[in-house]
Amino acid sequence: MTVGASAPGPELGRRSPLGGADAGSVGRTPVTIADVRVILTQPGSSRLVIVKVVTSEDGLYGLGCATYTQRVYAVQAFIERHLRPFLIGRDVDRIEEIWQMSMVNGYWRNGPVANNAIAGVDMALWDIKGKRAGMPCFDLFGGKSREAAAVYVHADGRDPREVADNAQQFAEQGYRHVRVQMGGYGGPGAVLHTPRGAPAGNYFDPRRYSHAMLGMIDHVRNVVDDEIELLHDVHERLHPIDAVRFAKDLEPYRLFFLEDALAPEDVQWFTTIRQQSATPLAMGELFNNPHEWQDLIVNRLIDFVRMHVSQIGGITPARNIAAFAGMFGIRTAWHGPGDTSPVGHAANLHLDVWAPNFGIHEWPRPTELEYEVFPGLPRIEDGYLYPNDRPGWGIDMDEDLAARHPCDEHVVEWTQTRLPDGSPARP
Ligand code: MG
Prior knowledge:
The chain is α/β, with parallel strands linked by helices. 35% of the residues lie in helices and 14% in strands. The strands form 3 sheets. Strands 4, 5, 7, 8, 9, 10, 11, 12, 13 and 14 form a 10-stranded mixed beta sheet that branches. α10 (315-326) links the parallel β10 and β11 (331-332). α2 (95-105) packs antiparallel against α3 (112-133), α5 (160-172) crosses α6 (206-223) and α7 (240-250) packs parallel to α8 (270-276). The longest helix is centred in the N-terminal third of the chain and has 22 residues, at 112-133. It starts with 32 loop residues before the first strand and ends in a 9-residue tail after the last strand. Bound molecules: magnesium ion. Magnesium ion binds at residues 233, 235, 259-260, 285.
């Protein structure tokens, strides 16, 4: 028998080169993209960008996160002016093709604005795919490897005692992983030796920072319950050679991970850190381009990939990265503070419960208002985040309530970071 002789032909002649509304797959009428809407809202501390892809099927839509909180209007314009006209009429089932074509359609690739815009659509299409299949997205990915995702939360304080008190309170609420910082990123405020005329800004002293943090972590490790795992985020605030020493100094405290010990521009130094300490390393929230993570994974220079899923272009690339990292014994810890929207957190959670190499979920402890704006936002129970079993991401949005909490207008200040002599620094 001739293979495929009885199967219907590909009917290539019927297909539009644009893959539009008349480009149906064989034997069915495709559901197509009818509209792409951008919703800006701020129910919590961060400005959020949510994408709603509306389909040709009555009542069927998907939600995605396109939150680049510092540049929300650039993402909004990208989606409304560039992606929307490109997407209307396309078959919602062709997620992979839409992602690939969206990425090359602008010729220049992998910037934060473009990636977030494409991610919002990508995530919404996965939501639609799940709804059409009647399955949660984790089932589309291959099913659960675990029932829930362990999370870590952020403890801060003005001095080591206050950090330890806050960490211990989280322990008593059932959290088993706590990130400990003191005085935010960069360390506690202190009188700095600045030159006359130094401008206003968010000052920090990298040398004092590492000394103060070492003392804080020593105190917290001695006070907080032994079974509580500690994490710390350097936030790329050290000179590379000081980061090498800091990772070595922290080795006795057996951190769960040390985050962003280096800036993306300095990642070659991970080789040196790796040779000199066994402190687990997490990296990636500022990455946009595959070149930024490929070598770190292949050379096993880090232990956790923690890219911001919308910054890398969405679920389609994130699934590939999870599988790629898993081949090298590297776990996932997707970036997830308050500027990952509730929709983004729901999507991260579906990746978490599926990925065999899941590590940890960063959890910002949303407010009750955020739960009201985003019905279905997962809840914490004893340090674990549980997905629901609804199709897609299992999360919705109350657009009327969201509209009553618009984004505030401000120039971002916390990123106006300066070294003691007043020179600009990476935040
Ligand atoms: Mg971080």
